Amino acid sequence: MIDIDFDSPRWGPFIMKTKVTNEFCDEMLIRAKKCRVNYNEKLAGHLDTQLKFDDTDKRFFYDALYPYFDKYIKEEAKWFSLEEPKNNSVALKPYSLWVNFMQPGDFNPPHYHDGDYSFVLYIDIPKELTDEVKNYVGRGGNPGCIMFNTSSPNLPLDNFKSISQHLYTPSKADFFIFSAHTSHMVFPYKSKCERVSISGNLIRQTL
Fold this sequence. Notes:
Blueprint: E1 15-19, H1 22-32, E2 37-38, E3 49-52, H2 55-79, E4 90-102, E5 108-111, E6 117-124, H3 127-135, E7 146-149, E8 165-168, E9 174-179, E10 183-186, E11 195-206
């Protein structure tokens, strides 16, 4: 049984931010560099290189990280005060898996995903980008940050569900899981380097 620590922002949607091992990231980076199938036409990103993983790598990835997705399902039920799914009552079917090779100036506009659940795992973040973040001066999101958005209902400002956005500056091995219907975007950066992340979608099936 894997002990999974996580953080979640206090607002409307449930987002689970956790960590995987650096060793897993390194293994997925090796596999990512062997990908050849262009996936751009299926995605919203303004990136030149977004590639689809083959079925073998897809199975390896989802088998390794299934405990994290199972944890998300259970914590999501608590978040929305729902009955926790009983053992083997819910199955998550992998829908897609791709790698993003992000270059300076690339970005992802606000968008949603297909399926029921989505995620992003950051497997390689170069020092040049880390230094750019440290040196950034401004009030907006940091270079390369990811921002989650939601429409706020008419709630008083002291209600945490009135918060409409959360921003994160990712580190290597950061793993975000969220509803596929949660709008999110990725800011560009300027450093001459390549950041690598993995994204995908899952479908929820009740057994």
